[in-house]
Amino acid sequence: MEDMLGRIIEIDKKAREALELVQKDRLNLEQEIVQLKKKIREKYFERAQKRLDKNKALEEEHANCIIKKIYKKRKDKIEKLDESYKKNCEIWVSKLCERVLKI
Fold first, then answer.
1. Interatomic CA distance for residues 43 and 63, integer angstroms
2. Structure confidence by residue, pLDDT tens digits, 6-18
3. What does the pLDDT read at residue 3?
4. 24-63 per-residue burial string, b: 16 or more CB within 10 A, e: under 16
5. Cα–Cα distance between 26 and 1 in angstroms, integer?
6. What is the pTM of this model?
7. Which of 22, 32, 95, 97 has its CA 20 to 30 A from that of 13?
8. Sign of torsion over alpha carbons 11, 16, 22, 24
9. 41-52 pLDDT, tens per residue?
């Protein structure tokens, strides 16, 4: 009877040790999962930031190109207006004076 009781105690002790090992493994695995999630999240954000930086550079380049086109159009229009003014200045002034004086 005592022998059987000793075996039961020994089996219980081994079961508790096995359970303790399993619980330690579980905690270690949970910590590894947390670390892995953190690394994955960092890599994801790093890749996303690189894409954002690349897209930002492309958008800025595109915007600068559009701005240059707008400035060129504006410059061309100003040049045309200046040409027209130089060509027609005297005519416009004389016609304007003529109209004002007729009133």
1. 30
2. 888 889 899 999 9
3. 82
4. eeeeeeeeeeeeeeeeeeeeeeeeeeeeeeeeeeeeeeee
5. 37
6. 0.51
7. 32
8. negative
9. 999 999 999 999
